[in-house]
Write a structure and sequence with these properties.
about 120 residues, alpha+beta, Flavocytochrome B2, Chain A, domain 1, elongated
């Protein structure tokens, strides 16, 4: 039997403040409270991801190996596999389960609309 502690999104929701800030990256749960003032990107970056899955934000920045090693000191346990399978979305549209929000679709949709409009004008107007 493993000694790794398992957490749920409800557990993470309880730790979304400056006084206690947890998040999950790659299905591992970290307490980043002590790192708030030291984070090179500012504390607001961590506060925005507080209490949920910060994998996409973490990977989008392209953190160094040193930054990844720092996570080892903040490790609390793993996200419960049943929770990791959930695909819940927050109010701002970010996926919590590690599934990336459809950012490419949001970028391509306006281009596709403009292209469709242009094709319509060229062939049907």
């Amino acid at each position: 039997m493993s000694d790794v502690k398992l957490f749920t999104y409800a557990d993470l929701e309880e730790h979304k403040s400056r006084n206690s800030l947890w998040l999950t990256i790659h299905k591992k749960v970290y307490d980043v409270t002590a790192f708030l003032d030291e984070h090179p990107g500012g504390d607001e970056v961590l506060l925005e991801e507080a209490g949920r899955d910060g994998t996409e934000a973490f990977e989008d920045v392209g953190h160094s190996d040193e930054a990844r090693d720092m996570l080892l000191k903040m490790y609390l346990g793993n996200l419960n596999p049943a929770e990791a399978a959930k695909n819940t979305t927050t109010a701002n549209g970010k996926a919590q389960s590690g599934t990336p929000a459809p950012s490419a679709a949001r970028f391509l949709m306006p281009i596709m609309v403009i292209l469709a409009w242009w094709v319509y004008r060229q062939y049907f107007a």
